[in-house]
Design brief:
The complex is a heterodimer. Chain A is an alpha/beta fold. Chain A has 2 domains: about 240 residues, P-loop containing nucleotide triphosphate hydrolases (Rossmann fold), CATH 3.40.50; about 240 residues, P-loop containing nucleotide triphosphate hydrolases (Rossmann fold), CATH 3.40.50. Helix content of chain A is about 35%, strand content about 25%. In chain A, helix 4 crosses helix 5. Chain B has 14 helices and 4 strands. In chain B, helix 2 packs parallel to helix 7. The chains are: A alpha/beta, B mainly alpha.
Amino acid sequence: MASEPLWELRGVSKSFPGVRALQDVSLTLRRGGITALVGENGSGKSTLAKCLAGVHQPDEGELRHRGSRVELRDPSAARGHGVAVFYQESSLVPSLTVAENIYLGHLPRRGPLVDWAAARRGAMAALRRLGVAIDPHRPVAELSVAEQQLVEMAKAISSEMTLLVLDEPTAALGPEEIDRLHEVMKHLAGQGTSMLYISHRLDEVFTVADRIAVLRDGRLVGTAPREDTSVRDVVWMMIGTDLEELFVRDRRPSPGIRLEARDLRTPYVDGVDLSLAPGEILGLGGVIGSGRTRIARGLFGIDPILGGEVRVDGRPIRLRSPADAIAAGIAFLPEDRKADGLFFNFPGPPNVSIANLDAVKRGPLLSLARERHRTGRVMDELRVDRRAGDLSVRFLSGGNQQKLVLGRWLFSDARILILDEPTQGIDIGTKYEVYRVMNELTGRGISIILISSDYPELLAMSDRVAVVRQGRIVHVAARGELTEHQLVEMAATDVAKGA
Amino acid sequence: MLLVAVGVALTTDRFLSRQNLMNVWLQVSIIAIVAIGATIVILTAQIDLSSGSLVALASVILAGLIKEMGVPVPLSILLVIAMGAALGLFNGFFSTYGRIPSFIFTLGTLAIFRGLAFLYTQGAPIFSVSPQLNPLFYRTFLGMPLPFVYVMVLYAAAWGYLRYTEGGRNIYAVGGNDSAARLSGINVNLVRTRAFVIAGFMSGLAGVLLTARLDSGSPNYGQGYELTAIAAAVIGGASLFGGHGNVFATLFGALTIVLVQNGLNLHGVPAAWQEIALGAIIAVAVGVDMWRRDIGQALGRLFGGRPRQEAERPAPTEPPVRTRT
């Protein structure tokens, strides 16, 4: 693996009105090297990626390819120089085949007709380059999520690829799929492709990257070979705070039972028993598709209850709809906050008040002043960006958006919160805020069911952890009794046998 | 909204005569009332194509009740408006609980309602319904024509409802993001059905007024009202995807349409050209709305300085937000 510089950024700066996204950034990307780029939201990671992708042009500084200066005026110029970008948002058409998707928009032709043989050959070659084999004639809809991602990658790369930029590629993936992706990356690195891996997930970064570059407020504050640094050092460079302070579960549950489910059955959940004490955080761990979210949906009245009983504070409750669950004091923060959580046609205050409009009424009518005032209090408590008061929430960062949705449930006096991947796609500084909020809420007696694929987070924040597999709870462990390794094993064991 | 200014500006000479303004207002009022219903339905991300036909049916039933069945006028009016609401419920039920897309279902009721109207009168209009109807439309209240008053009152009520009640807030929520609304405990189907009931009520009311204005009921009335009403809403900035819009803007939209028609009439433009002009205006209005941001940027660049819209863009490191409109 030659280590000559393939791509370089020298003194790159880029500003937008009101913000200096990048300041004097110099970075070298070597042939066959995997460089990770980490930093908080707003640190400039995406801007840097977009400069390489030709989406933005630097105001100052230069980009060099193989030692000579290049100007990437637009994405096709970047592609011309062999830059491929892989985003997390899916661009596949489910009803078309693998080959059709890989060649979407540029199917090989023979005269006026499509050359299907060439398309098939090319698709297989691209997939082979990633080290995998998938039948190019299969419709993409039939593939697993991991396989679809590989097709997505095959689509992004091409034979002349020199640099592959991956922008948060693992946000929606489970552990095995992430491993697969990493293998593919190493395979590509072996072929001499240079890669820039942008991620929030430091554990993954330390698994796959050779070098780690840290951005903070638009400046490159450090780069180091992976062996010479640690997660702790990187976090310190990113935010200036020590890692120890982050995962702090500093409350203990009270005695008693706030929520109890006995033999809960829905079309997707097969007889689940669980109990939750006041102020307790119960973590649900399991692979993607294991049924953790389905349990949550059952408890929130989204999926129909076919059998079993649910009690809140000892009283049995009917869960025919989310309204019933909300009335019983249960709240649900869905995994996809954009699709299921936020109202982009509203600014902050209505987003917060929507689940409890009675609290902002004066008589039969809504009082906008009262809404502003009361939701403002919650928003301040959660330290949500002040601009959320007037702007549509689409302008907020992911972390602020998540805090806003969390605020909605605080505003509704929920006593039981079900959080589904609450820190997904959020930078580390805001994660800490979310943990702080979780601690504070449990200190007030609110109970939390935490669903997280981030096992270190799950193990650190939960008072008890339940392992979910195929719609049932197979094991419950108290704090400290389970290691990450054990959790992974227990969560995954049946997968090979089952299905 | 700047289009209304344009609309008003482009009119000339005889426009500002009292007689003409009165005419315009009378013309607008009925459509404006239907447009309230259209707007509310659109806010919930649905569409009601049957309002014009419902107006016809209402007019015909009202005429029939009064003239042929001798039902007292006030009672007939109430019955017809109630019928409008009930048919709205019919529309709403199947478009929500019935899970038939509202576009399709109301396309069906568009035909059904008008068909019923034809059936009822055997295709013929009913003339000279009742002298009691005339003042309903032509009298004045404190110097202002009654239709003006009706429109103002109804619009104010609709505005108040949408802005200051839980029901109104739920309408925006359902239109903005129906799955988030559901997860927030809102009964989405109920909210959507209620929107249709309101639309039916408005159409019924409009039918009554139309009958009063023309002193006759006919199955041919109200042709194209639904499209004009929807156009008014869209020109006023309502998004067909739901969640965006407000009623007063719709009123401006309706005014724009009628003013343009009026302007063209005053200039003696033949009817065919008027249709074309109207269609063009609607297309431009929607286009302006969609491309507002881009136009703003282009103008900004033209007049120097940084495009103002850039400042509103999310922090550059965020991946593009797939906005749920």
